[in-house]
Amino acid sequence: MNPALPGDAPEAVEPQRLCRSDELPERGRALVWDVLEYGRPARAFVMRFEGRVVAYMNRCLHVPTEMDWQEGEFLDMDRRYILCSIHGAAYEPSDGRCVGGPCGRGKLAAVTVREEGGEVYWYPSRDIRPVVFDAT
Ligand code: FES
To answer: Where are the domains of the chain?
Structure first.
């Protein structure tokens, strides 16, 4: 299977299934998945925090790099904040806001996610699209 080239994604894209709701325990390991952001490969993550699923691009505001300590491990030891593994920037999981460290006053780029019927879906946008695989 080959990833589609940027621009191959159709204009109207349906919600994309990520996982079952019960695969995202409260403040547990996040699910990381591949997307195309402005046509370039990137990664996003979804986790459950205070009962709600939240998703962001896996990219720190300090230096544009992935933040997890190990695949899907974003939270600090107290499971309270998203903590960048590189220089320790801390983010509020509920809204992605920088709350400490070298991430300034910005927010992580959010990805729209919803739960429906016990499943978690993400909603592509004009800028963040699914990676399309062909069947050949
Ligand atoms: S790259 Fe995340 S804190 Fe520096």
So the answer is: 26-130
**Pocket lining: 94 vs ligand 1, CB cutoff 6 Å:** no
Which of 36, 51, 122 minimizes the C-alpha distance to 93?
A: 51
Task: Say if ligand 1 is within 6 A of residue 60 CB.
Answer: yes
Using the 8-state DSSP alphabet, how is residue 5 labeled?
Answer: P
Q: In CATH, what number does 26-130 get?
A: 2.102.10.10
From the list 90, 106, 15, 108, the residue with the least C-alpha distance to 54 is: 108
Kindly give the distance from the C-alpha atom of residue 85 to the centroid of ligand 1, in angstroms, as a whole number.
7
Residue 70 has, within 13 A of its CA and on its CB side, a CA count of 2
Q: What is the pLDDT along the chain (136 residues), one digit of tens a residue?
A: 344 434 444 455 799 999 999 999 999 999 999 999 999 999 999 999 999 999 999 999 999 999 999 999 999 999 999 999 999 999 999 999 999 999 999 999 999 999 999 999 999 999 999 998 776 6
C-beta atoms surrounding 42 within 10 Å: 18
**Is 90 close to ligand 1, i.e. is its CB under 6 Å away?**
no
